[in-house]
Design a protein that fits this description.
By secondary structure, this protein is α/β, with parallel strands linked by helices. The protein has a single domain, classed as 3-Layer(aba) Sandwich (Rossmann fold), CATH 3.40.50.1360. 29% of the residues lie in helices and 19% in strands. It has eight helices and eleven strands. A hairpin with a 6-residue loop joins strand 8 and strand 9. The structure holds 6-phosphogluconic acid. The site of 6-phosphogluconic acid (6PG) has 15 residues, from loops. 6-phosphogluconic acid binds next to loops.
């Protein structure tokens, strides 16, 4: 009996429905993801809108620009219902607004019907907006496992391991029964609205878009597992969906490249 070779880390991750895609640059990663999203939208049934939830921060801007440049006319944007994973509690014209960044980089350049854009109203009272947005999601998207079901949830990764607006120490947001809750950025005290972990983990596809050397250490810790950490991003485990990591070489520089070497 030949001793079976120990599974490689890639195989272990693949067994957990986790795919890793590494690109030479953040631009290449964003362009490839834009093409993948365009393909998903175009192949979806004609009578079905895709529910897509976007994250903010700086990384996704390249993706939104790539979508606008590469797929302004090659995607039937009427088939998309757009939501946000989280939003800073600021007005839409504030430089911190995730919606404002998406509007400027993408929404103003594509024929996505305004009625399909469901922004979080960062200018409203946070507690009441968390309730309102929960209701918007619950009445606007399909349900699976008796929870709102997103086709795609796009996530970023903070260098402290946060994702969405779920920061270290707030793992309760992964078990919360609410669809959205108020969170606080512990470094700035800024209030945010975030969808909760059960909604993220109910998605068909969760995509992490991560780039830059400053994320390399946290990416390596998450890719290689090992000692139990309290990084919120590690709680992202779609119950019956897939997780895909879109990384540039800088962000993957400590994981040994496409063949994860922990
Ligand atoms: C936000 C995001 C947040 C972000 C990470 C990474 O509202 O800030 O949802 O989770 O994805 O903080 O941000 P960068 O892309 O700016 O590094």
């Amino acid at each position: 009996m030949i001793n079976p070779q120990p599974a490689t880390r890639n195989q272990q991750l693949n067994d957990m429905n986790i795919d890793i895609k590494i690109f030479r640059s953040a631009e290449e990663s964003a362009s490839s993801l834009a093409d993948e999203l365009a393909g998903l939208i175009n192949k979806s049934g004609k009578d079905r809108h895709l529910a897509i939830a976007l994250s903010g921060g700086s990384t996704p801007k390249l993706l939104f620009q790539a979508l606008a440049e590469r797929h302004q006319d090659s995607v039937d944007w009427r088939k998309v219902n757009l939501f946000w994973v989280d939003e800073r509690c600021v007005p839409p014209d504030d430089s911190e607004s995730n919606y404002g960044m998406t509007r400027d980089a993408l929404l103003e350049k594509i024929a996505l019907p305004p009625g399909n854009v469901h922004r979080i109203r960062g200018e409203e009272d946070p507690d009441s907006e968390a309730v309102r947005y929960s209701e918007v999601i619950e009445r606007s998207v399909d349900r699976k496992n008796d929870l709102p079901f997103f086709d795609v949830v796009l996530l970023g990764l903070g260098d402290d391991g946060h994702t969405a607006s779920i920061f270290p120490g707030n793992a309760y947001l992964f078990e919360a029964s609410e669809t959205c809750l108020v969170a606080v950025n512990p470094y700035s005290g800024q209030k945010r609205i975030t969808i909760t972990g059960r909604i993220i983990n109910n998605a068909a596809m969760v995509i992490f878009l991560v780039s830059g050397k400053k994320k390399a250490e946290i990416v390596n810790k998450i890719m290689c597992g090992g000692e139990k950490t309290e990084y919120p991003a590690e709680y992202v485990k779609p119950v019956d969906g897939r997780t895909i990591w879109y990384l540039d070489e800088d962000a993957a520089s400590l994981t040994g490249g496409q063949d994860i070497d922990c």
